[in-house]
Known about the structure:
This protein is mainly alpha-helical. Helix content is 56%, strand content 4%. Helix 3 packs across helix 5 (104-115) and helix 13 (339-357) packs across helix 15. It is globular.
Amino acid sequence: MPSIQELIHKFEEGDGTRSITKTLVLLLLATLFVSYNFREYRSFSAVEAMEMSQLARNLSEGKGYTTQSIRPFSLALVASRHDESTSDPSMIQDVHPDLSYPPLYPSLLSLWMRVLPFDYDIPSLKSTRFRKYQPEILISFLNQGLFILSGVLVFILSRHLFDKSVAWMSTAVFFGSDVLWRFSLSGLSTMLSLMLFMLLVTCLVLMERASRAEIEPEQQEETDSGEKGRPRSLLWFLGMAVLAGLALGFGGLTRYAFLCLLIPSICFSACFIKVQRVPVTLVMLLVTMVLVGPWLVRNYDLSGNPFGMSYYSLVMDTPDFPGDRLERTLTSEVTYPEYSAYIRKLLVNTTEIMTQQLPMLGGSWMTMFFFVGLMIPFSNPGLRHLRIFLLISLALLLVFQALGRTFLSEMSPVINNQNHLVMLAPLLFMFGVALFFTLLDQLPLPFDGAKKLVILVVLLVVSSPLFFRMLPPRTSPMVYPPYSPPLIQEIGSWIKPTDLMMSDMPWAIAWYGDRSCLWPTRSVSPDFYAIHDEQKPIRAVYLSSLTTDKKLMSEVLKGSDEVWARFYMDIQVRENLPKGFPLKYGHSGVMPDMLYVSDQQRWLPAFKETNQELE
């Protein structure tokens, strides 16, 4: 049994010190998680979060990869792949296949939904005390688990590349990023993409280091623990290549822009992995293609394009297709803009990204240290190689983000699935922290302990956006306007599960209301009637403040695509429906900034009871 003096020595200078430090770090992290979730939780606000969540629910219920949030353009694409003699060419009568999102994140969510007790019903539809939607809380727990795993990878990689001090501070900066915390609660696939990117980088770094250890064993640098890289067998290299290929493939099945990282990954393995470069590169490429290939074939069979709807994001937000015009178009024949339109979109969006997002990428000022550090050369060849990989990835993702930007980025700025650059934030933090310590070592500090004080102050400064967000006033958990989950779920309950309705927020109707919902077509006649009369009856139209709160002169009266805003004005102001319009019953109890018209008075108790029995 150790003596009291030995115990005291253990906790002051021995292993006990590290145990106490790790325990304190875990307690601080747990406190931060609880505090942030309690104060800053918000319901989903991103369109993509609601659409991928309802996709996951359909998967968990055995309905396949089908969506209840239906775009008119998707109907046209699917119909173009079928003969006119087909009874349901647009696949709208029963279930409609999703063409907008890769499958990995919804599939992961569906497994999560099968494991945990998800409760989609809001106990009291008219409850004024509603604040949080239980399924969204459980989804945020999954994403925060991925957030923690990513933080672990940040520590391991930075510890491997630099030293213990850089590793601890890089991890602290990572968990001190307000933007990353907001992504962890958003319901988006960003945390999964970020974790897969960190896994990819870790594999590439390990292979590059092992390659140098075999060619230049005498020049291998030691890690902080005194270990050197050692030569590895061919089997080890192939195993790491398979793991890197899995990260690339799964990343591409999370968001298509991730596939562009295949270019810098192949360049990295071909140029910097001196040993076994050919088998490593081929295996990495083969594994990626085997994973992604079947899904691209599925999309091509359904839509004539391997990337489905995502391909047309290049056309969106151009002068010919502003806003959501393309997705509301009921024809698959797209007149592509001139080459100059793509250049204009690239330049305009790149300018905005470089001036507003890059300086604080990931929501931390530590990013600026990375850009300053580009002027400082590294003696370590591994760091030089990784920085080249990072810069190429940054340039490619910048182009993809600029060209792929749509109106969804305007509806939810920064926190959206089109923000690809945020995946690079952890690496930028590492290089930024490394430069910070390099500068700190050159400072003449006046007293012992001043270095720790400077580190603490810098951490507080770079994490200040997170701390200020957690100060009063407390954020409202509901994103209203326009989303009121109890009201949306009640409106959804007015129609049968097999019926179809139309709304300007079909993603919310699909997620909260669990009903198939179509985006408003560009016109009432002929588009609305083409679906209602020839494909499937539309039982109700629900317009929210997304439509009714538009600017009168510039958006409603002069906007060529705002027929539904004028439709709302005709009913509210003139109390006049378009001649021959099949939906003649309006609900007077819906809020004044909304409109609900139906073919019958479906909000009556008799209709609601019938719908509940069918469910």
